[in-house]
Amino acid sequence: MSRSFRALLLAGVLCAALPAGAADGFGLGRPATPDEIRAWDIDVGPDFAGLPPGSGTVDRGMEIWESTCAGCHGTFGESNTVFSPLIGGTTAEDMASGRVATLQRPDFPQRTTVMKVATVSTLYDYIRRAMPWNAPKSLSDDDVYAVLAYMLNLAEIVPDDFVLNEATIRDVQAVMPNRNGMTTAHALWPGPGFDTAGAAPDTANTLCMKDCKAGVELASTLPDHALGAHGNLAAQNRIIGPVRGRRTGPDEEPDDDAPSPRILAEQAGCLACHGVDTRIVGPGYREIAERYRGRDSVPALVAKVKDGGDGVWGDIPMPPQPDLNDDQARILVEWILAGAPGT
Amino acid sequence: MTLMRTAKGDSPRAGPPDPAADVTSGRLRRAPENFLTGEQIHLVSKGRREFLRAGFLAAGAATVAAAAVAAPSAVAAGAGDPDILQTTPWGGSLGRPVAANPYGLPSRHERALARRQSPGLTQVAAASVSFTPLQGLFGIITPSGLHFERHHQGWHDIDPARHRFMINGARPELVRTPKVYTLDDLMRLPSVSRMHFIECGANTGMEWGNVAVPTVQYSHGMLSCSEFTGVPLRTLLEDCGADLRAARFVLAEGGDGSSMTRTIPIEPVLSGEVLVAYGQNGEMLRPENGYPLRLVVPGVQGVSWVKWLRRIEVGERPYAAKDEAIHYVDLMPDGQHRQYTSIQECKSVITTPSGGQALLDRGFFSVSGLAWSGRGRITRVDVSFDGGINWTEATLQTPVLSKCLTRFSVPWVWDGRPALLQSRAVDETGYVQPSYGQLRQVRGTRSIYHNNAIQTWQVAENGDVSNVQIL
Predict the structure, then answer these.
(1) How far is B334 from chain A (nearest CA, A)?
(2) Among A156, A160, A150, residue whose Cα is nearest residue A177
(3) pLDDT bucket at A172, cuts 50 / 70 / 90
(4) pLDDT tens by residue, B41-100
(5) What is the arithmetic mean of pLDDT over A132-141?
(6) What CA dihedral angle connects A84, A88, A92 and A98, to 10 degrees?
(7) Of B205, B135, B130, nearest in space to B349 by CA
(8) What is the pLDDT of residue A329?
(9) In chain B, which residues have pLDDT < 70?
């Protein structure tokens, strides 16, 4: 291959993006409208770029919290039942220093969101795009301000009469308890971008091949009682080959080709919000079975599963489940009313 | 369900194992209903060698059992394996027609190898993880149905005709023409197909402080590898007239409920490595993996490979998104969090044999595992059988690709004595995978993310393999 031909090939690779005969790109795609960009460009940066105008009070935030957020996060944002706790573990001293002291304590049980987050913009952005968990993007911008004001109040960062808006949020940033708690001094970012680019990896093992140490000590082993915590390992390994899985529990029932109601409930995401014996976001299945005992509620409940509903079990609405067909919804309802057997 | 004993019984054994006995003494193995006659159970109880000689090694399959039970007199009459001496059901009958399974499925005998959750790791399954069964996989490609899952707010099967992909700028000056693309548009553009690993930043996260899980599925199974097909993001940015000199970061955003966002480094975008992908292993992405569109960021932790990708914003500063300012931050011993940790450093693990398994017998084994690095190609893997005192170089199986899983293997004759198996990988930058001691010395035990320590599997005298840690 001649050098010039190879150069031509190389140029062809580099210029593959430029189609022959097209002056301006590929002629594919279309300009985004300003409204479309506004609808999707919802990110809020640490410099508050993208923060929408609006405001919310602690009191209004409490109203929304108790109807919409407390189910998962607890009345005070302290719950770890569904998700990691949001509030707790920070002090007035942390607000002064910008470093959360409990993060240095290995004995501190669980990190909360407010212990970790350095940028209050992240909280606004998070709530606005992803909360409430089962109905994301359903809060107005003002309601997002209100919920965030209430959270900041729970964390004792702002007083009871605080009004959070696009101006006061900057004052909050100045007292965020862990605002100085982040570092980019590491080698795990590819390329430039941070002033620590080019940092060397923080470990440096060597290629010793022989007599590398005097002896070996086991630092940790799995306790016997934990061996079966992941079910029967024999049923998680192939039945042929050089090894078998160790038998660490009872044999699992063989797979049935028809999905069981429990598997259907799992696949449809029902169990994300409903426990069998416990409330998560929505009521537990046994609780539902109890309420409708002795009544012919199947058609009504099938409709409710498919179309959603609210008002029966509290303020958090049941979202519609358009992916379920009538048969699946009926299988689920009959199973739930039977007390969700086999769970 | 009948249980058959594969060995002498439950009595604990003292001293060195009897080579004629089952190395997995006392273990119960599943067998099909009515599989064994009383005579055969007696045969089995005499010891595994006898059992093998009688030709029932492949006895896990019900069909084999049927043949064996159907013709006991023939077995007695002939000398040899009944699956050879007798006509098997599949050898003497008509099989099923083409397209009986319009979309083919694995054999029903392979159901043990499935994605599984780790009990207690999360409270709700829509914000959880399912792990790839690395203990049973070959080569480097993960079957799409076994690709690990990590969802923050559940997954959807999105109508591809309604999915849109937008590129815009953090400032209008950064993108001359913000554009919207349909899948029709994107799939007409010049595409590339590349094989890359994807690993969750929290892979092996449960093991930072101590051994917590029994098998490689749970310790390392937030790891998969596929051939991805898509359009280099750079091509699309150029198509929109993005200012690639001013751009320093891009934001990737998902179209699902969590609308996950991550700040993506500009360097792999400019080099053409970052793909806007729709293909995975020759077909479209699976819904659980982002159908119809996901970002591919080779070498970088999985959370940045945003699924159900709906938007790229060209920007000049990092975004401090929820999954880089609250989650996916690495806690150091001094109480600081490392932020924007992204690269998955060089790592390896032996998958056969691995924790929770048992070796069938003494003798030859091909010890095999996976190595990978977010900084490039794997250049070398060493394996130790004595917990890291002495090492031997493993063979790397081809292909050996950048930011892709590499399969290694090393021959081993197990003499029945206890052993401690480790693997240690090296990448093209010269970086050597660290020990637990080296990693903890710098990062402590509470980091959760980016645990790439050398893994140890302990082989006991009875052949049982367990997860242990050596500093």
Answers:
(1) 6
(2) A156
(3) very high
(4) 444 444 444 434 444 334 434 444 444 444 444 445 689 999 999 999 999 999 999 999
(5) 95
(6) -10
(7) B135
(8) 86
(9) 1-77
Extract the tokens encoding B433. Answer: 């995978």
Residues of B in contact with A229 (CB under 8 A): 119-120, 214
Cβ of A229 within 8 Å of Cβ of B446? The answer is no
Tell me the domains of chain A and their CATH numbers: 55-173 (1.10.760.10), 261-337 (1.10.760.10)
Reported residue count of chain B is 471
For CATH 2.60.40.650, the residue range(s) in chain B are 347-468
Rounded CA separation B283/B289 (Å) = 12
Give me the residue from B166, B214, B382 closest to A40, CB to CB: B166
CATH 3.90.420.10 range(s) for chain B read 128-338
Q: What is the pLDDT of residue A322?
A: 76
Task: Write the CATH number of the domain with boundaries B128-338.
Answer: 3.90.420.10
Domain with residues B347-468, CATH architecture:
Sandwich (2.60)
Residue B295 is given by DSSP the state E
Q: Which residues lie below 8 Å from residue A34, measured CB to CB, with a gap of 6+? A: none
Reported as a single tens digit per residue, the pLDDT across A38-72 is: 999 999 999 999 999 999 999 999 999 999 999 99
Q: Which of A16, A181, A246 sits opposite B464 (nearest CB)?
A: A246
Chain B residues whose beta carbon lies within 8 Å of the beta carbon of residue A40:
166, 168, 253, 310-311
Contacts of B317 in chain A (CB under 8 A): 45-47
What lies within 8 Å, CB to CB, of A227 at 6+ separation is A233, A246, A248, B214, B356
| Chain A with chain B: Cβ pairs closer than 8 A | 372
Shortest alpha-carbon distance between residue A300 and chain B (Å): 26
The residue whose two tokens read 């369900």 is B1
Q: Which residues of A touch B360 (CB under 8 A)?
A: 242-244
B265: left (phi over 0), alpha (psi -120 to 50) or beta: beta
